Structures are given as C-alpha cells and as structure tokens.
C-alpha cells in the first residue's frame, strides 16, 4: 500500500509500485487535468508539483511519492479562487487547443515560486514544456502578468 497526499487529501494506492504517478492520478483518482503527452518526460503535459516542485508524472513511479504531497492542476485554486497564473492565462487567452496548458500552468507556477520576477530569458529557460500550437508568446506575457499580480499581493 502506497500512501501519499494529493491536493491536500490523503490517498492510498494498492497496485504495482512502478506504475507511473500519471496513471494513478488519471485512472485511479480520476483527476484528468494532468495529461499524457509523450510518456518519456519530455513534453511536460503531465507536470504536477511534488512537495512544491514541478516534476513529470509520466516518468515518476508511484512508489517514489510515498509519504509525500502532490498538487495537480485541480488543486492549485484555493476556495475556488484562481491563482494569478490561472487568471493571467485567461486574461491573455493563452490556450489554443489547450491540451498542454495544465502542465504549462504547473511549470509557470513553479517558476514564479522560485523566481517572482523572471526575465524573458528566465522564462524561456524554465518553461521546457512543449506547446504544439506555439502559444509561447502568450505564455511569456501571462507569466509576466502573473508575476506583477503576485508582487501586488495576490494569491500565488
């Protein structure tokens, strides 16, 4: 039995300990905001936070999260209040097809926790998630806007 927290709720998984966290999150826990993209940790569609740090869940065996805390896209907003990153994503109409966007938001949130005032170069370096629609310009604008909102005291 593997016990961990997901979005502040303790859960148990009784299955193959090598199962990627992505499939436990999607198939067992029915939190489908985390997406399958490449399956090799390259695209970032499966990005989640583990103890506050962004990771790729498709290459993370569930046994490695035992006793730890996961946050998925469903767990970012608190009391139904969108975070500045989520608000900026909407304001700048970032998604085109939208498939990669939960992973992009998780990566951007992690970036802003580490660097609350990133330059364009910082964003380009930190945002390794792939967007097939090419919304990178809007992503950068949204991250800068979220950073500004956060500096004015909004919830991160």
Topology:
Blueprint: E1 2-6, E2 9-13, H1 21-28, E3 47-50, E4 53-56, E5 69-71, H2 84-91, H3 101-114, H4 120-126, H5 136-151
Parallel strand pairs: 1-5
Antiparallel strand pairs: 1-2, 3-4, 3-5
Would you write up a description of this structure?
The protein is α+β, with helices and mostly antiparallel strands and 156 residues long. It has two domains: 74 residues, Beta-grasp domain (Ubiquitin-like (UB roll), Roll), CATH 3.10.20; 68 residues, DNA polymerase, domain 1 (Orthogonal Bundle), CATH 1.10.150.120. Helix 2 packs across helix 5.
- Low-confidence residue ranges: none
Total number of beta strands: 5
> What multimeric state do the chains show?
single chain
Coarse shape: globular
Query: What is the mean predicted local confidence, pLDDT?
Result: 95
Estimate the helix proportion, in percent: 25-40%
CATH fold topology of the largest domain: Ubiquitin-like (UB roll)
Q: State the CATH class of the largest domain.
A: Alpha Beta
**How far apart are the first and last residues' alpha carbons, in Å?**
33 Å
* CATH architecture annotation of the largest domain: Roll
Profile the largest sheet.
Answer: 5 strands, mixed
Number of helices: 5
Strand content: 5-15%
* Count of individual domains: 2
Short description:
It is built from 5 helices and 5 strands. Keywords: 2Fe-2S, Iron, Iron-sulfur, Metal-binding, Oxidoreductase.
What descriptive keywords fit this protein?
34% helix, 5 strands, oxidoreductase activity, Ubiquitin-like (UB roll), single chain, 13% strand, 5 helices, alpha+beta, DNA polymerase, domain 1, five-stranded mixed sheet
């Amino acid at each position: 039995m593997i016990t961990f927290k997901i979005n502040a709720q303790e859960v148990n998984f009784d299955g193959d300990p090598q199962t990627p966290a992505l499939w436990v999150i999607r198939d067992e826990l029915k939190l489908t905001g985390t997406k399958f993209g490449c399956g090799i940790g390259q695209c970032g569609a499966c990005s989640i936070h583990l103890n506050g740090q962004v990771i790729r869940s498709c290459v993370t065996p569930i046994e490695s999260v035992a006793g730890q805390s996961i946050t998925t896209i469903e767990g970012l907003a608190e009391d139904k209040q969108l975070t500045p990153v989520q608000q900026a994503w909407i304001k700048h109409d970032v998604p085109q097809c939208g498939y990669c966007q939960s992973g992009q938001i998780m990566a951007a949130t992690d970036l802003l926790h580490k660097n609350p005032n990133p330059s364009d170069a910082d964003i380009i370096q930190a945002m390794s998630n792939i967007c097939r629609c090419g919304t990178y310009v809007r992503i950068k604008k949204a991250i800068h806007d979220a950073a500004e909102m956060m500096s004015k005291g909004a919830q991160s």
